[in-house]
Every structure is written in structure tokens, then in C-alpha cells.
């Protein structure tokens, strides 16, 4: 299992010093499998993401849910993917909760039920750029997760069927950032839909009939990597920022007979995670 070699440890910043002084960016690469992400990083196929990660490698983590809604509800409550080794592991963010064993001195503790409103209470402007259906604001359920944010955006071209979804999402993020008071801290959340099925159109020569595969999933991650630098640059143009990039759950492509997610299989519960600082440009 060469892919499960321990990655270089991530920095463990004091989040009480980060919150208030830095913009915050949370990118969920929806549905991205850990094994695919690790293979591509090791092969040099995601150079822009790898350049930001300690040792150029993803941290292997366990998702807090097996599908988008469950996992994002947990993440927004402060339960980011957990290191895939026995814990307890301290958390970056946590709601005040008596007896929490994963709240440490360098954990940022918020007084609200969720991190998004906690950051708003700390003076942040909170923005959601949605991707998959749970962020499409087309009905009550698709409005729950975007509803945590002061400002939320979704368009069909941000969604799973668009071959240029990530570019459209970054275009919107750039517009939002350009209109912000430069003195106000920003929490920007982007749910990237490109990895989620359907993704066959990201692999040159693939066809709708042949459908989605592990290879088209990988091609979708290469597509994201080609453009992610523009999103990071938009943030660092405002000042220093702290970025978290992770998946919310993986997905199965026939592994042990399973297809999709919202099920308990290693390819679903194992996810890639990283975090890093962005210096002001
Ligand atoms: Zn998802």
C-alpha cells in the first residue's frame, strides 16, 4: 500500500490567531476519492495543488458523512474530515461544548451552532459558491446549506453537468471578491462540482455511453488543478488567508460491486485533505 505512506505532517496553526487576521477559504472537492487524489499527486498530475501541500501529498482522512448533505452539515458544525489514524485529534474549529475531547487551546471555539454563523459573529462576511444539487437553492432542501451564509450563489453552469463548472465558479468568486470592502474579513466556501458524476466529459475521447469511471474522475481532478491557482490568487489579492481543501466523501465505481456514495465503503469514507496559508500578494 505505497499510497498510505504517512504524509508530512500538516501545520497546526493556532486558529485563535488565524481567525480575525486572515481570510478563510474552504474548498470541498465534492466526491473526490483519496486513492485517486493520492495517485495523481504522486504522478505529478496535479502540480498546482501539490505545490501547496506539505511534501506534495494529501493527508488521508475519514469523512464525517457518506454524502454531501451529511458531510457538509458536519463540516459546518466544525467536524472537518478526521486524520485516518487513532485519535483523539484536535480540531481547528469547534462549537463550545462542555467535555469536548477534541477542543484544544489552539482550536477556535465559536458560540453559535455552526462555524459559518460563528465567523459572521466574529465580523466575517460569509459567501457560498455552490456546485452540486444540495447547494442549488431550487427548493427548500437545496437552500439549507447555502442558507448558512450571508451571501450565496448558484447557477446551472456551476453544477455537475457543466464541463466548465469550476471556471464559472471562479468567475463568480472573483466578482464577489472585487465588490467587497477590503477591510472586511472574508469566509469563502466553494463546493466544487466537477468531480461528481457525471464527469466523463473531462477525459478527452471518453463518451457518454462509456460513462463515468475512475479515469474520468481523475481527469476531472486534473481539470480542477489547472484552474485552482486563479481562485487562490483571487484570495491572496485581498491579504493573508488560510485555506482548507478537502473532499466531503468519495464514490465507488464498481468497487466490490458498489456504485456511488451514501454507503459505507472504504472508497467513500476515505478522503483527501490539506490546509495551508496563502500569503498576501
Ligand atoms: Zn458530496
UniProtKB/TrEMBL annotation:
Transmembrane segments: none annotated. Gene3D superfamilies: Alkaline Phosphatase, subunit A. Pfam families: Sulfatase (PF00884). InterPro entries: Alkaline_phosphatase_core_sf, STM4013-like, Sulfatase_N. Residues 24-265 form the Sulfatase N-terminal domain. This is Sulfatase N-terminal domain-containing protein. It comes from Streptomyces violaceusniger (strain Tu 4113).
